[in-house]
Amino acid sequence: MLPVADSAPVRKGPWEYFERSFSDQPYVKHLRHPWGHGIKSAVEEVVLDENALAVGHDFFEVGSYEISPDHRLLAYALDTNGGEVYELRIRNLETSEDLADEIPNLYYGVAWSKDSRSIFYTRPDEAVRPYQVWRHQIGTPSTEDKLIFEEPDESFFVSVYESRSGDYILIGTGSRITSDVRYIPSDTPEAAPRLVAQRRHGIEYEVDHLRAANSASVERTDGEPANDQWAILTNDNALDFRVATAAIGDSEPERWRDLAPHRMGTRIAEMDVFEKHVVVSERRDGLEHLRVIRVADGNEQSIQMPDPVYTVATGANPEYSSETLRYSYASPTQPPQDLDYNFESGSTSIVKETEIPGFNKDQYICERSWASADDGTQIPISIVYKKTTPLDGTAPCLLYGYGSYEICIEPSFSSARLSLLDRGFVYAIAHIRGGGEMGRSWYEQGRLLQKRNTFTDFISCAEYLCSENYTSAMRLGARGRSAGGLLMGAVSNLAPHAFRAISAEVPFVDCVSTMSDPALPLTVGEWEEWGNPIESRADYEYMLSYSPYDNVENHPYPAMFVAAGLNDPRVMYWEPAKWVAKHRALRSDTNLLILRTEMGSGHGGPSGRQDAWREEAAVLAFFVHALS
Q: CA 238, CA 203: separation in Å to the nearest integer?
């Protein structure tokens, strides 16, 4: 890597904010410089130096990081053990000193009032579920903070954030399949939250503010600004979601008007709302697309992508009145780029491209293939390899998978992966059901009582790679983490002969026990994903049929690398530990079986960059050894 590297600067008000990383330091330094006429100033200010704050801590992570509207204060939250419970601090950016305000026991997410005098934050319960929103007045003790909202349903998580316009504080509550939103005008932070629309089981929605250009000083009789609207992303009468608009204060969904109507097979995942445009991030045929809609007349433009396999996402865009959209682009053979799309001209310019010393993209090939699942469904696979790699079945291959929570595993760039590709590896991603790569129905076909599709899809992808001579079973490795670790455990039981080596990192492998203990973090909220074995015998028996821990048998298994985190609040360390212990007691082979436990970190692994590299190097070294 480069000795010093800056991120692409992002304009927010009169400043441009960016990060600087150093090759010999584990964390980044946050900086800013004045913005003016599109030319950055040479005068820099340090906003926050993570390396200075991390001294004396084995683990260190900045969670929330929010600049106040007047740019004089920074609210930032620290986690020093990986448990994902934070302490909030307020820094005076004019003196570079923290105020006396310190608020313990926070979860992710903070939001500023418009006058920069109040801040809203979430608190978790004993199961690490964010369930409360509090308001803190700057300069007062945290014991005087006011409880604004509390969600009693244990299956719902609470979040708080600002509208991009800065005019509203938004409080979101959501389970796996249901959500609602409340709002508080940012210029009256003491106001009680108001509901956008009533909660309905199975209906999800989120909102952002569309400010009417001519209504800043006009109010309706109910106190809401005239002509202002919500932009609403919802699955109401839309399996793959739609974007609608509604007057603020109008809570009746039948009066919502479509801005981006539902298109079956095109899953709208996100929206970015600006003064004159709404940008829709949507997934079609397994790839992400960006569509720009002009609010005034509904005119649409799609941003074109240069590669057949890629990942694209909108970036930090804090300016509501921005004339450009910042987005990121990468592919397995294209290092990450930050780009600006001009709303009026439709032109795109590269702001920054990550430099990878010695890398030549022309030496590599990226492909999209399709494997047939057991039921005939076509499963997309992203594949990358070096041009000199033989495709005669002799090359080692690493197949990655996840397949849960409608999360998409993107075909992105990885500098660490180059170490494998340059050694002759083929690298593949199985975009299996349970993820969101092919729309909401793709997710539905891989959850609850259809979860086994996730595992058999992955095995079908492995068999395809062998049948097409990318590799062979004796040179095929598989990798997954968290719910992807469950995938690894399940396929190792269902098809141990299909893989030579498996890495399962922070793996969810004792499903029945965890889902039967509502006192554990996340359990109640996870029942909509996995089923409830306490109340449903069908859920219990089905879960038992694939639970990795419960299906270990006395036969040969692939070599295994298993990683755990002692402070992990999502997958308790004892799950992988007891799974490995059962393997040691029952398996009939002498293949490598490693349990590596990080004693000072959580679900995401080590926090510092160098420590994270060492962890990644250990996994890659395992595969190089096991598949040689």
A: 10
